[in-house]
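Q: Hi! Curious about what Calcium-activated potassium channel slowpoke looks like structurally. Here's the sequence.
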Amino acid sequence: AAGIIHLLENSGDPLEFNNPQQLSYWTCVYFLIVTMSTVGYGDVYCETVLGRTFLVFFLLVGLAVFASWIPEITELAAQRNKYGGKYTKDVRRRHIVVCGHITYESVSHFLKDFLHEDREDVDVEVVFLHRKPPDLELEGLFKRHFTTVEFFQGTIMSPI
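A: Let's find out. The predicted structure is below.
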């Protein structure tokens, strides 16, 4: 593509029979990279009709190729485990890890007791760990307590 820009810009404008600029090949490479990155500094630009026409075509093809990759990118993002990853401890807060039989009933009773306002120190983060992802009811409970609760899928010995 840089070679085509180089040829078109250095051949001159056929409609006006003049050549407004002389560009080196590497200047054309720089121009295309800056244009494709959408920065478009404006220090180098096409002045001929043929150069501008080619550039419009080049950018449209580039956008079409990028648009064709969007479904694949979306699929890759969807395959990422929603409850995977690492726990990042906040140095200002203590935390506990709860694993075992994680159900809506057990978690709601635990949180009701553990996060009760009569307790002296409630500023503790609760991390739940289970092999299976939570069902919708349990996920809703976690979202209601999003400031104090995190859920990860996996086991103590093998995170997913």
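A: A fun detail: The two ends are 45 Å apart (CA to CA).
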